[in-house]
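Q: What would this complex look like in 3D?
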Amino acid sequence: MTVAIDVRGVTKTYGTGDAVVHALEGIDLEVRSGEVLFLMGPSGSGKTTLLSIMGCILRPTGGLVSIGGEEVTGLKESQLPRVRLARIGFIFQGFNLFPALTVRENVELALELKGIRGRNARHRSSELLERVGLLDKALQWPANLSGGQKQRVAIARALAGEPGIILADEPTAALDGTTGRAILDLLRELAHEKGRAVVIVTHDSRALPYADRIVTIEDGRISNGERGE
Amino acid sequence: MASLAWRNLFHDRVRLVVTLVGIVFSVVLTSIQFGLFLGFVQATADLIARSGADLWVHSQGVVNLENGIPFNERKYHQALGVPGVADARRLTINFSTWKKPNGSDESILLMGVEPDGGMGIPWNLVAGRVEDLHQPDAVIIDELYREKLGVTGLGQVVEIQGRRARVVGMTRGIRIFTTSPAVFTTIDRARRYFGLPGDQTIYVLVKVAAGADPAVVRQSLRERLAYVDVLTTAEFARKQAFYWMFETGAGVSVLIAALLGLVVGVVVVAQTIYASTMDHLREYGTLKAMGASNGYLYGVIIRQALISGMIGYTVGILISLVVAQTSLQTTTAIILPWWMLVILFVVTLLMCVSASMVSINKVTRLDPAMIFKG
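A: Here is my prediction, written as structure tokens for the whole assembly.
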């Protein structure tokens, strides 16, 4: 399996002087295509910070990060949206759907960012919604959907750019057990059958059977000794 | 797909209404305040600007219309003989006392005019004719001040400076900046009311002959007539407006109120647009995570601000125009010229975009935790 994300010696500090906070201290981690990697750890351990750095939303203070073989820590701020657009799909705990857009439009918005519009966008959004089983809800407003349905729309949206990497932050936290398992099934399928690297931040111990690998972070360090090789 | 900016705005109707109310309030406040200022400026100088004269001759040292200094009307005859002068008319202006039918007194601005001269005469008559001023004791008032002067209709008999006067006509819209309404009568009668000698006048209004250069005529008048000043109508109107607006301090308060209106308007619009953008901050963060460029985000936010600004401006100006139209029935006019509407339109959009730029800063420095946490 190829390495989708390579994190080497990454540190992240906030503040200066006496107020300095070390959110991450020398993180080394590889995430391979086709695997589901769980990032676990107590609140404030640095999971979200690491996920943000892997998602090119946040810059590390030190260390190197490569996405799909491209070293991104040296890129300019203005170049990072291109990396996110081309390589990364995000799934959020709160779904983060656009309430003013219909289900279809939420997916088409992601396609629009890729430059896909009109008939092509309509066709592609239908495919994506069909894949998550929500084509019949295409004209619904997000507010009219259940939590599981919203998360599936979010997954369809995340897949719009055909990213090699899916980063999910607590994707089942707002869902009941059955719905949560269905979402995890979908994410595992995306990794195993479509060859995507899926990183999931979770506290949910019921999700553990879905992990190919588990990395635990405590106080900004990987605590289970795993480098993920 | 419909624009995200448009959909964001119209999806949350309550939020949209709150935003628009803020902008409409600002537009109405600002336009009314500046309209009032312009109305006051016009009220100070209307008697000059609409006199029909090209040049005004007055004693040296006169700083405003209402406080003219009498001079011998020999100069009026001299003016008639200056090359390039087509016509000249005398005009007296004095504050006088008007006794209402109920016995109480009102201060008035008594205008002594030559009814047949076409200069300095009342305009926009809605009852009677200017020539009616030739009737015994005749005066013309403005209907806006009817109640103030205790006049119930034409033919009403009152007293000016203890002498009989009779209302023979009414104008509409001759507003005066001071609390003393303009009352027109003949120059001879005005001189009697005021006790001014029959050979004295306070102003001479000059009409320049067709083809003559007003600047040259003015210079000739200055050279021929001693101890007087000659101003063009525009100059005197500016001088008069400046006197009332700035030298007396009366207009400064109006201008300060207008500027405060603008400041309050800016703050309200900025706060409203900022709050509106902040409401969607999480969505912008999500867009950013999805790979939207800063340019795309700026486009959405600025479009949203512009749409809000345009709708708010349109509604606000319509309200202001209705208020301005209504004000024409009162002694305090609100004037909204087209150029002010254009300036206000640009200012409103600039305010909206500037306010949204402040929130753009927030978007570009977004804490990732805000996007990720539910």
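A: To summarize the key features: The longest strand of chain A covers residues 3-14. Residues 177-192 of chain A form the longest helix (16 residues).
Q: Very helpful, thank you.
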